[in-house]
Amino acid sequence: MSASASQVRLYELALDNGRSASPFVWRIRYALAHKGIAFETVYLGFTDIPTVFGGRFKTVPILEHGAMVLAESWDIAEYLERAFPGPLLFNTPAELALVRFTDAWFFNEVLKKMFRLYVKDVHDAARPSDRPYFRESREKNMKGKTLEGFTSDRATHLPAVRSALAPLRAHLLKFPFLGGGTPNFADYIALGGFYWAACAATLPLLQRDDTLRDWLERGFNLYGGIAKDPGVAPLFE
Ligand SMILES: N[C@@H](CCC(=O)N[C@@H](CS)C(=O)NCC(=O)O)C(=O)O
Predict the structure, then answer these.
(1) Considering the domain 9-83 in this protein, what is its CATH number?
(2) Which of 72, 84, 130, 166 has the fewest CB atoms within 10 Å, i.e. the most exposed one?
(3) Residue owning the nearest CA to atom 5 of ligand 1
(4) Contact of 10 with 63, CB cutoff 8 Å
(5) Ligand 1 pocket check for 151: Cβ under 6 Å
């Protein structure tokens, strides 16, 4: 059996409502769809991660493909590109480099701010058996605050997240996707972040008239409606 014909398994993070909710997992779900790779999902809770593969990995996504097992979303994306034919995720090294820049920008300027807004919501949406671990591991970085204390004034942080999104809005007024005429891994990185927020959020992230709406709609509808999920919380006020 060739490497590409053996079974692909993606280890994902499951919330109590059964949804797969991790921005890092979602970029890989999109990448697999982009390349047309069939895969099987293995759902893990936070506290299940150390119980698979002898505790080798601390985070999901984890990808298993024949004898190859790896974590870290960028390593997985680059592996998929090498191991599978089909549409390229990165058409040139320059595209890959720019997508890496987009990822660094999105993580530092947007995703970290979203984590700040939604950390308690993620706790509340996690499987009950994961909640004590999630609370303890996150509160360690909150300088003595509880999840409740840390997020009690979270609405005051909304304007900062919304204005951090200005570069996305400016670009998407000119192009249908971050990748230009067609979506690329930069779109998948950002869309994964928004889908993750929608899975747990109890506070809408965006204003009703935010111009990101059309791109989000297009992005969630890609690949037969990959992230179209009427059951998630509204992203818009
Ligand atoms: N750098 C990693 C980050 C992955 C990551 O942080 N995953 C989170 C879920 S969003 C996780 O598995 N956390 C496990 C934990 O907090 O114990 C990647 O790109 O894959």
Answers:
(1) 3.40.30.10
(2) 166
(3) 59
(4) yes
(5) no
- Of 109, 218, 118, 202, nearest to 162 by C-alpha is 109
Measured CA to CA, the distance from residue 215 to residue 195 in angstroms comes to 13
Q: Kindly give the number of the ligand 1 atom that is closest to the alpha carbon of 133.
A: 17
0.85 exceeded by pTM: yes
pLDDT tens digits for 70-117? 999 999 999 999 999 989 999 999 999 999 999 999 999 999 999 999
Say how many Å lie between the CA of residue 72 and the centre of ligand 1: 8
Residue 37: name the closest of 85, 75, 90, 82 by CA: 85
Q: Is the shortest distance between the CB of 13 and ligand 1 below 6 Å? A: yes
Question: Which CATH architecture is the domain 93-225 placed in?
Answer: Up-down Bundle (1.20)
Please check whether the two domains, 9-83 and 93-225, share a CATH topology.
no
Residue nearest to atom 17 of ligand 1 (CA): 46
Q: Are 72 and 63 in contact (CB under 8 A)?
A: no
196 lines ligand 1 (CB under 6 A): no
Using left for φ > 0, alpha for ψ between -120 and 50, and beta otherwise, residue 176 falls in alpha
